[in-house]
Structures are given as structure tokens and as C-alpha cells.
Amino acid sequence: MKRIIILCLFTGLLLSDTRSWDAHSAYLLPQKRWEMGLFQPFRYGYSESIEYSVHPLWFFVMPNFSLKKSQSDFAGFTSASQYKMVYPTPFLNMIAKKGIPGIIAPDFRMPPMLGLSVSWLMSKNTSGLDLTFKSGLDIGITFEELDFEALDERSTIDLPLVYHRLGIYYNKWGIHTGLDVQKNLTQKFTVFFDLDLILLPGLAEVQIDPDASKLMGEYSLEHKLLLIWNKSENFRVLTGYKFVMGEYPYGSDMRLLPYIPMAETWVPIIELQWARQKR
Question: To the nearest whole percent, how much of the chain has pLDDT over 90?
């Protein structure tokens, strides 16, 4: 049960011209419009060229902030840069205990850590498809040296979506890239598809028994398919699945999410999102 809770929380902590709802793209929110969801951050169109977002429920246990800034069009694509910051230490130390809340061994104290990410996004509508290409660099800063020999089940959370995102604090850096495709089926229904790759180059070098075949690092390949019902410009419902395949300390694994281990079954994503335009 505790792993289900952690996975659900981290799933939320994973979704120029202006356009509503397109958090994944290079398009910014219209000025003074805000959007949020059950698992999505609060987003706000601060100006015609700047949008910011924050996970409000996470903020007091895992401070976080993201800023998206429009850039000049490139090769016919709407372009934007995105900057993210997260401070996971308070939350990780909260779950370093015995019993149900514990995920990390209680004798392991996580040092102060800061995650920084910068991305470049390019979006374009072509042949009725909204395409977004994205790529970027992730930096993991630790203010006390992490013990690489402790890179085991005492200090890591070997779960899909979680392990590779926390891996930058051991590896110091990582790379992410991906493609998003969105198409309107009708006036009310939209389908969304994405494919993302997260790399931790050279992570095997800090493991106890590095394997030469893994010198390129560990990876996570993630894919999501969503059907979206747009009830209005201020409310929509999303459902679908997320597929994750990657390399973990225990070997290769793949999983269809959300997944309930006790029932050994997959259940569909259900997400509700709201928006308003300030006057």
C-alpha cells in the first residue's frame, strides 16, 4: 500500500502563441488564465511571454517551481524554454522510517538536494496533428556527498517513474527527450499520445559491480495514451494509461500504470482538470 501511495504522488509530480490546456507543449497559457488538476500542477499565464506552475499540495514537503518562457519561432515551430526546480529532501526524509509510511531505510538520512531541469520545446500543427518535440538536461545537486556504495534498497525507491527521476542525485546529471502528438477527434474529444526517454549516462560507473555493457547508463522509456473529453474551456476529463519500461537495480522491467499490486491488475488513469480566466 505504501508503494502505491508514493507512486501516485510522484505520478502527479510528472504533465509565442498561447493555448489553453497544452501544458506539454511550447504554447503558453493566455495571460491571467489558470489551470489545475487532481494530479497536475497549478499553472498561471503571468504575461504574454511567461507562464509559471507549482504543485501546491507538494510545495510544503517538496518545494517545487516551474517557469515556461516563449522564444522566437524556429523553422516554423512555436518555441519555448522551460526551467524547473525541486527540493525533494524534506519529503524523502519523511518516508525514511519504519512501518507503513517508510519507503527508505530509517538509518539513511537524505542530505539537502536540489534538482534543476532546463528544456527546449518546439510545437507545430501539421496535417491536423499538434506535434511537440522536447529535449533537455537534468542536474542533481547534493550539498553533502551521497555515498555511492549505499546506492541500494536502503536509499533508492525502485519504482517506475520514481527511480530515474531521483537517480540524477547519484549520477549528477541526466538527459530527457520526447515527442507528443495530439489530435482533435471531434469538437469535444481529443486523443493524446507521447513517448519520452530519460537517460542517466554512466550511472553504472558508480555501482559496486559496473557492467561494461551498461556504460551508456540506465534508461526509462515512457509512453502515455489519453482520451480527453473537453466539456468546456474550463473543465475536462482525461482517461487512459501510462507504460514504463526501463533498467532498475534489480534488472529490466516494464509496467502498465496505474497498477495495483494487491489485485495484480491495471486500472485506467482518471484525471479531472479545471480552469478559469481572471478578468
Answer: 56
Q: Count of residues for the chain? A: 279
Cβ atoms of 168 and 139 within 8 Å: the answer is: yes
Do the beta carbons of residue 207 and residue 171 sit within 8 Å? no
pLDDT band at 1 (very low <50, low <70, confident <90, very high): very low
DSSP state at residue 169: H
Nearest to 151 by CA among 211, 98, 93, 209: 209
- What's the half-sphere exposure (Cβ side, CA atoms, 13 Å) at 144? 6
Distance (Å) of CA 136 to CA 25, 139, 153, 178, 229: 14, 10, 28, 9, 30
Cα Rg, the chain, nearest whole Å: 19
- Domain spans, the chain: 2-71+79-277
- Judge: domain 2-71+79-277, CATH 3.30.1370: no
Full-model pTM: 0.86
Yes or no: say if 246 and 237 are a contact pair by the CB < 8 Å rule: no
